[in-house]
Amino acid sequence: MKTTIISLLTSFTVIIATLLSSCVQDLDGGKEQQVISDEMALVTLSLSAPSSPVTRAEATATENAISEVDVMLFDATSDKFIYRAHGTQIENQATVPTVDPDPYATKKFEARLPLGGPYKVVVLANARTAIAGLTPKLPIASLDEDENRSREAVLNSIVASMPAGKTNFPMWGYLPANVTISPTGNSNLPDIDLTRAVARVDVSLNDTITNFVLTSARLYNYHDKGHVAPEAVAGGYNLAPYPVAGSKQAEGTYISYTTSTSSFANDIYVFEGEESKPVTGSEWKANTCLVVGGLYDDRVNTPYPTYYRVEFYID
């Protein structure tokens, strides 16, 4: 998993797990298929997350949890939204041999998909509430009459809130090549990489620091909503920062965290935000940032908590 590490005054290590990049991977279509009518096929799909811990920011079982899946089809010619299917029979499958931190990194589910195509395929996980009002535009002959059903308009309208319980995070993925669903099977469908709409921020002391205890953290000026997918544009996707307009909290608003272990792991999650402003003038005060606090052993000279502000910049 890709990570960004920020060292603060040689005292802290802040690890930003870029869950926005590539944490859940490999939606492999066409493992099994059953034709259920002249127009529909029941396809069993599988998706898996990395299970080998390669960094301290490796995804956990709760971060990989998927409780609902939706498959969205767009007409490859008009690029309009034409079909949506709920994934069913979602199953966890244990990794063999079992590997921490997530022994159930592989998932399977079924989806009823219409025969034909070609289609552009988008998969959303844990985002059903966010797409509840999206209805496919039918019949296909009338697609050009409704620009609100374009891939760009549909995907760019999907906005999610932070889930409770720090699990079941919204995710998305797509097939870069068009797909045709045939009665004889779809074993040649390529893999899809699912990506989360949130990033995790872990904070810990460097091993060499013995005179300081980390006690608190505050996330300031955060966004309370995020786009489930990156910005959809003609011909593909724009991977530049794409925060939800109007979702940034007022300057000075914060979420508070405390710890008794002198670290924060799998606890702080953030939606995508604007690129931080340089620390000049006054605009930087509205940057999304983390303020960490703690106590030095020398309580005589520093009897009160000491605080450090951590800015987030694009590497």
Radius of gyration: 22 Å
The fraction of residues in strands falls at 35-45%
**What's the total helix number?**
3
Average of the residue pLDDT scores: 77
Helix content: under 10%
Task: Count every beta strand, where a strand is a DSSP E run of 2 or more residues.
Answer: 22
The poorly predicted ranges are 1-12, 18-33, 50-57
Structural class: mainly beta
Question: Which oligomeric state applies?
Answer: single chain
Biggest beta sheet attributes: 6 strands, antiparallel
Question: How widely separated are the two ends?
Answer: 15 Å
Give helix and strand order, one letter per element, not per position.
EEHEEHEEEEEHEEEEEEEEEEEEE
- Overall morphology: elongated
Task: Please provide a written account of the structure.
The chain contains 3 helices and 22 strands. By secondary structure, it is mainly beta. The longest helix has 6 residues, at 151-156. The strands form 6 sheets. Strands 5, 6, 9, 11, 12 and 13 form a 6-stranded antiparallel β-sheet that branches. It has a 4-stranded antiparallel β-sheet with strand order 1-2-14-20, with no helix packed on it.
How do the strands and helices of this protein lay out in sequence?
Elements (H helix, E strand, L loop, with lengths): L2 E6 L3 E6 L1 H4 L2 E11 L4 E9 L12 H4 L4 E7 L5 E6 L1 E6 L12 E9 L1 E10 L25 H6 L2 E3 L9 E4 L4 E3 L13 E2 L1 E8 L6 E9 L4 E3 L3 E3 L2 E3 L15 E5 L4 E9 L17 E8 L9 E6 L4
Antiparallel strand pairs: 1-2, 2-14, 3-4, 4-8, 5-6, 5-9, 7-8, 9-11, 9-12, 10-16, 11-13, 14-20, 15-19, 15-21, 17-18, 21-22
